[in-house]
């Protein structure tokens, strides 16, 4: 238990949280990639979430997701909190569950794609509720197709990070 709350572990999570938050904020400055669904993003900060799931465990990743969303809401605006929190928590839950249950049969690439699809579906659902516009569900096929590409990008970046970072930076057990 003592190693679980080591200074090195907390410092590493803090650095990853800062990097994920900065990545999210930079990505939020980029114009929407799908004009009719401006709430859909690639979600590059999910590289850090998946990295934390793999290297620190699902428990730490849950608190990481909550902290990332609260921190980014301070800078991006509180109006986006529910949209981002819904997508992030759904993506986290699926990625953590799939990783725990199916890894290595299902690789990080597949886990990431599944997380991206579920995260963007959750954001669409929140947008439907928020705007009271069920017609937004018509976007789901395009949103899901985009999510496959976005999840693939996040998966590849996460795999490369885990593969090429020195072991001392990826092993915190």
TrEMBL record:
Transmembrane segments: 12-36, 48-67, 79-101, 108-130, 136-162
Official protein name in the record: Gx transporter family protein
Domain of life per record: Bacteria
Annotated keywords: Membrane, Transmembrane, Transmembrane helix
Keyword Transmembrane helix carried by entry: yes
Statement: the UniProt record of this protein carries the keyword Secreted: no
Gene3D superfamilies in alphabetical order: 1.10.1760.20
